[in-house]
Structure formats: structure tokens, C-alpha cells
Specification:
Layout (H helix, E strand, L loop, with lengths): L22 H13 L12 E5 L2 E4 L4 E4 L2 H4 L8 H13 L11 H13 L6 E6 L2 H16 L3 E5 L8 H6 L17 E4 L11 H20 L4 E6 L15 H11 L3 E5 L23 E4 L10 E6 H4 L15 H16 L2 H22 L3 E7 L2 E6 L9 H13 L2 E2 L1 E3 L5 E4 L7 H16 L1
Parallel strand pairs: 3-13, 5-6, 5-7, 7-8, 8-9
Antiparallel strand pairs: 1-2, 2-3, 4-10, 9-10, 11-12, 12-15, 14-15
Helix pairs in contact: 3-10, 4-10, 7-8, 11-13, 12-13
Length: 448
């Protein structure tokens, strides 16, 4: 029996005992390449045996600093004790019944908590699915049925998933859409308020982008034909773009004025990641429907659609659901995540991560003219790399910095419509000494 054990008891240290990747990881990579199609990419081909706190440990015994959290999934830390305890207890009781066949309390409890915690004090309903893409797709289904309209509006640089509808909603072609068409009908794209790249400057960005988006909807679609507007409060895969202040409230107001369902895709931004429980709270946005996933269940597959009761109650019996949606193990994990966020005040810890990272990164921006922009909130931070003296995207620099960071034992992720963004998503429980060490490795890579 394996004696492996992860979680916060793991030594919180960077430790390199082989090159990265090591020989055992390389052996497994060869097996992966023989068994798994190349369309399933790998950011860093080290095969993990344990993880917890701010580190992942690979099969060769290397301990790496984790600035990725499984793409914002293990925000409460890998193998978080409350998650492990609840899931272990549940797996010994039963693993599945299908909530639509014979229900169980944990599903209801997760829904009750999301109804309570998500923005707005109106009456809400929640149902559970398996992934962020599935949540977004179901949110659109609800909006179309409730409004009797078909058109869906999305934004430049948005990412919403890999199913047929959600890759249609997604802005970036390669690798998400290339060759996979034809796409779903009645989806329209309008400008996003991207301060760093707005032609007339960030000070004009919110007002002009909102005006352009609304004008495009009115002229090209007609407000009365729009079922839903779907937007990430901070664009994730598009490059951690925080829309200019004022843009989101204006779009939400336009939706209210025209009977359009405002859907906030908080799959990556939710559950304390941005220094608030949900990113919408930053500007007081109350979405009609909010979709959540990733950080909701500490690594188990779960996602949710939470929205106004008058919208969700319109769907006929059997119109929503799925065999695995709200699996009991994932529900228990989600309850453990919510307990951990509250008991360890991870909202405040996310803000503290931002307080450490942003000044350090801005100081690096002063030193290295390859850094065009530093942005983000809480523990959702990014730098955009450009050709020095220009705003021309520099994906080559990103690739080289990532290579150097990985070789030094720092796991970092990329993003951006132009492939030129480094994104940082450390676990909210990461010790500060590891955060500082990771930033030092990044600075060394930039110097090189």
C-alpha cells in the first residue's frame, strides 16, 4: 500500500533532486504519448504523486512551487483537510445514486449555500453540473427559455469552455476552435474594455467600450432579440483582463433596461480567488445568473448555475440535469471548501497575496521593459509581455521565461489572446516565504 500523503503537512519547500522533468517523469511521459492523443497538452511534464499547501511533489521527489493551483481549482490547497475528511466519509457511505433518481442532502446543502453566498439578496435557485462549460451552456439554456429569445452576446478575449456552444462563445481560435466548426448559431461578439490596449487610452476605455458594445447590439442584433449577455468579470484565458471600472455596471444596466439576462461567468474568478468571494462584488454587480466551477470543490469535478428564482423556475421538469451532476463526493468536497474559506479567512489571504505580488511585479516592470502591463486582483495576477518599446505581443519571451521558471522548480501558467501573458494563481494557503521565493525565480528568469 502506498505511503504517499499530501496536504498541508507536506514540507513547504522548493526542492530539486533531479533535472526537470526527471527520469521517472520522462518514462511516464513516453507512456502518455503512446496512450493519450497529442490534443491533450501538458504545461509541465512532471508526474505528481503528492501536493498540498503551496507545493506539488513529483515522482522523482522534486518539490515545486505551485503558481497554478490546477488552473484556479485547488484554491484551498491540495488535499485540504476538511475536503479529505468529508470525501473520505462519503466514499465509505455511497459514491453515487444520481440526484435525479434518489436525492441526498449534501446536494441541497451546496445549493442552499450558493443561494446565500452569491451576490444579491433576491430569491435564488441553484443546480449542479460537472464542469464550467456545462454550467455556462445550461445558463444560456435557461436564459433562452425564460426570455423566449435566441441571441447570445459575448465579448472579445472571452473564454467559456470547449463544448460546441461554449467554444462558440469563446473568442480565441487557436487552439480552442481551430478546425472544430461549424459553430452554434445566434452568438455575437462585441468589444471588451481592455485598458492596456484601448486605442484612446485607459481613461476612455470603460465609456467608449460600453458605448461600442451597446451600439453593436442595438444595430446588429436588436436588444429585443437578445436572451443573454455572458461575460467573465475578469477575462481568464484571454489574459486576466480586468475591464476598466464602470464598464461592467453599464453593461449590467443595459441588460436590466432591455430584459436581457446578465450571466456572470465566475468559473475562474469565484470562491475568494480575487480577494472577494466573487469578482462581481468589486463593482457591486448582481448578475441574474452566475456560473461557478473550478475552485468550488477542491479538485473534484463540480460546477453550479445559480440564478434568480423567477428565471430558473420557468424550466420544465427534466429540462435540466445530468447523470453525474452534483455527485455526492463532489458535494461533500464543496462543503469542505466553503468551510475552509470561512474558517481560514481565505478572502483576506487572497488580498494579502495581491499585496505581496503586485508591488514586486510593478518593481520588475520598472526594471524590465519586456513587461508591458501588470494587472489583477487578489490571487489572480498577470503580466503581459511585449517587444520592448512597443505594445507588440511577445509570446517568445513568455515561452523562454516559462522554460526557465519550470527548470528552477516554479510552476507557472500562460494565457492571453496573443499568447503573451504569464498568469499567477497560487493556492490561497501558500506560505509567504514560498510566494517570495517564486517571485525571486521569476525575476531571475526575466533578468536572463
Amino acid at each position: 500500500m502506498s505511503t504517499h500523503q499530501g496536504g498541508p503537512a507536506l514540507p513547504q519547500e522548493r526542492r530539486l533532486v533531479t533535472e526537470i522533468p526527471g527520469p521517472k517523469s520522462r518514462e511516464l511521459l513516453a507512456r502518455k504519448q503512446a496512450a493519450v492523443p497529442p490534443g491533450i497538452g501538458t504545461t509541465l511534464p512532471v508526474f505528481v504523486t503528492r501536493a498540498g499547501g503551496g507545493v506539488v511533489v513529483d515522482i522523482d521527489g522534486n518539490s515545486l512551487i505551485d503558481f497554478g493551483s490546477g488552473i484556479a481549482v485547488t484554491s484551498v490547497g491540495n488535499a485540504a483537510p476538511r475536503v479529505v475528511e468529508r470525501v473520505s466519509r462519503q466514499v465509505a457511505d455511497f459514491t453515487h445514486t444520481c440526484f435525479m433518481v434518489t436525492p441526498y442532502e449534501s446536494y441541497v446543502e451546496v445549493c442552499e449555500k450558493l443561494n446565500e453566498l452569491t451576490p444579491g439578496d433576491h430569491e435564488k435557485r441553484t443546480f449542479l453540473v460537472n464542469s464550467g462549460a456545462e454550467a455556462v451552456e445550461n445558463a444560456v439554456k435557461v436564459a433562452r427559455l425564460a426570455t423566449g429569445r435566441q441571441a447570445v452576446v459575448v465579448f472579445d478575449h472571452g473564454y467559456h469552455g470547449r463544448t460546441l456552444l461554449t467554444m462558440t462563445l469563446t473568442a480565441k481560435n487557436m487552439p480552442y476552435k481551430q478546425g472544430f466548426g461549424p459553430f452554434a448559431p445566434e452568438v455575437y461578439r462585441v468589444p471588451l474594455a481592455y485598458p492596456y490596449r484601448w486605442p484612446t487610452g485607459p481613461e476612455n476605455c470603460a465609456e467608449e467600450a460600453a458605448a461600442q458594445a451597446i451600439d453593436a447590439i442595438n444595430k446588429q442584433i436588436g436588444a429585443g432579440n437578445v436572451a443573454a449577455v455572458v461575460i467573465e468579470p475578469i477575462a481568464g484565458e484571454g489574459g486576466f483582463i480586468e475591464p476598466a471600472k464602470g464598464f461592467l455596471p453599464r453593461i449590467a444596466e443595459y441588460c436590466r433596461e432591455n430584459g436581457i439576462v446578465f450571466i456572470a461567468d465566475e468559473v475562474q474568478t469565484g470562491f475568494a480567488r480575487t480577494g472577494q468571494l466573487f469578482a462581481c462584488e468589486d463593482e457591486g454587480i448582481v448578475p441574474d445568473i452566475i456560473t461557478t466551477a473550478k475552485g468550488i470543490a477542491g479538485g473534484l469535478p463540480l460546477a453550479a448555475v445559480t440564478g434568480r428564482a423567477d428565471l430558473l423556475d420557468k424550466v420544465h421538469a427534466g429540462g435540466l440535469g445530468g447523470t453525474y451532476g452534483g455527485n455526492p463526493l463532489a458535494c461533500e468536497a464543496a462543503l469542505g471548501v466553503l468551510e475552509t474559506i470561512e474558517s481560514e479567512d481565505l478572502v483576506a489571504k487572497a488580498r494579502r497575496i495581491g499585496e505581496i505580488m503586485l508591488p514586486r511585479l510593478r518593481a520588475m516592470q520598472e526594471r524590465f521593459d519586456v513587461i508591458g502591463d501588470v494587472r489583477g486582483r487578489g490571487a489572480m495576477i498577470a503580466i503581459e509581455l511585449v517587444k520592448p518599446g512597443t505594445k507588440e505581443p511577445n509570446p517568445e519571451a513568455v515561452a523562454e521565461i516559462v522554460r526557465r521558471c519550470h527548470a528552477e522548480g516554479l510552476l507557472v501558467l500562460t494565457a492571453g489572446t496573443y499568447g503573451n501573458v504569464l498568469r499567477f494563481l497560487p493556492p490561497l494557503v501558500m506560505p509567504e516565504h514560498l510566494l517570495e521565493e517564486g517571485l525571486a525565480i521569476l525575476e531571475k528568469a526575466l533578468s536572463a
